[in-house]
Amino acid sequence: MPLRYDLHTHSTMSDGALSPAKLVEYAVKQQIDILALTDHDTTEGVAEASLAARNRQITIVPGVEISVTWSSCTIHILGLNVDHKNRQLQQGLAALRTFRNWRAKEIGRRLEKAGIAGSYSAAREHAGGASSIGRVHFARFLVAQGHAANVPAVFKRFLAKGKPGHVSGKWASLEQALAWIHGAGGQAVIAHPARYRLNATRLRRLIGEFNECGGEGLEVVSSSHSRKECVAMAMHARRSALLASCGSDYHGPGNPWAELGKIPPFPTGCTPIWKSPRWRLYDSAQEGYPLQSGSERWPRG
Ligand code: AMP
Ligand code: MN
Ligand code: MN
Ligand code: MN
Fold this sequence. Notes:
- This protein folds into 2 domains: 5-92 and 170-292, TIM Barrel, CATH 3.20.20.140; 97-159, DNA polymerase, domain 1 (Orthogonal Bundle), CATH 1.10.150.650.
- 36% of the residues lie in helices and 16% in strands.
- It has 9 helices and 9 strands.
- The chain has helices at 20-29, 46-53, 87-113, 119-127, 135-144, 151-159, 174-183, 200-212, 227-239; strands at residues 5-6, 34-37, 59-70, 73-80, 187-190, 217-222, 243-247, 281-283, 288-291.
- The protein starts with a strand and ends in a 10-residue tail after the last strand.
- The structure holds adenosine monophosphate and manganese (II) ion (3 copies).
């Protein structure tokens, strides 16, 4: 049986619904062998996920999903197998979370002007202990208040570009995000590349600049992609000599389009990122990387 990989998931440390420990527990149940925790702009859940993976038949990939502003667009870059204790990475992520906090207050002010009071403190409550507050926390409050039927409907009516609660992002540059990831020994992947709705020229330019910064991979298979988009992204990966990654972008139960570990196979011609000589296996028991890639040993959590 080939190993099952899910290299893009969220916990309550950002906008996911399950705690890192519950996420790992559920991943074991879903028979995932290798699970990356990739919360938005924070690695705070890695320690708990790693603890939960001990003595279990699962390997954790310490990861992060970094918010980037590229050519006036918000792009997400996954860092896989980052040393989550790396200082430069942590300083970079802390700056992004400072912006998140400012933006949350600003979203609150704008919604207030649109006649919706108290959303900032409510979003804070929905975020609970999350170190990374985001638009989903606002969306959950607006749904609870009956302003929209569900989270996607809130985005459409209140939080997307041009809507009353929208605040433009001032995130990391592509160069910064890749420098942080590489400085922490990780590999960089463009998350859900088809979701940005970039035209062919702009997508090629993004991939070109990503390549120039030493980026490694493209998330070819994602719950955000139709099969046709997966095939198109596989073509882009091949043409740019990028490795292919796959992830559910799981945010918790109740998102029928993104089930944990429900990952269709790669289109033909993809080289999975875990075949790269730089791919490494995190050992939760030792909280480090003692195993060499290609090791004969079963990667135990
Ligand atoms: P943020 O990083 O705080 O701006 O929030 C981005 C997150 O919002 C994404 O990772 C998704 O979890 C969620 N999101 C973005 N757009 C939508 C949408 N149209 N419907 C539902 N969730 C969305
Ligand atoms: Mn999210
Ligand atoms: Mn994303
Ligand atoms: Mn994500």
